[in-house]
Amino acid sequence: EKRERFDSDFSYANYLYLVRRFDEAKDYFSKSIEASLDKSNNHGQEVSSALRRMMSIDTKIKFDYEKAKSLIAKWEKEPRLSTNDKKMVKRWGDSLKNWKGFDPKSIKSMPEFIQKNLSPLDMKKEIIFSGEEDVTLLISSGVILNYLVENPNSDLAPEVLYWLSLIDHRMSHTYFFSLGDLYLKDCIKKYPASPYAKKCYQEYADS
Fold it and tell me: So what's the pLDDT on residue 87?
């Protein structure tokens, strides 16, 4: 599909994101932000969503610290951003520092990765929904999703599905498109004997 078939750069960027043409998507998300900021009645939600999806490309999908750092450096200096968006970009910068040098190929134990990065958040879901841990959630979701694709029959699968659902519910419609309920249903149906099946059911009931 070509750009002229879409009503805006933002719509086209979302299409490119869905079909995994990520570099092009970032270009059009950036164009959509510039267009919105140039208007006196700029589309605030569109700007926020475009920033978030670009960040998800550099972290969740590509694990590219330098590109994520460059993205933050570019937009944190943008005076036309709303106060909330400036705070969001600053939170990203503060959190990204903790992931400098991270290489998903260096992970020796997925249970240890989950225990270190996700388990501490399980009892503090208000932190998950505050946005303070978005970079951690993005990177972690990319890591565990790749693990699940490569190891679909792993004993960790129900726990991975549980975490993917929590992260998705926090970030759907802002960073990417919602699959949270699908993860929970898979967890409940495929792994009914797992202790995580009960947690998945409770999360599904609460969502």
Answer: 92
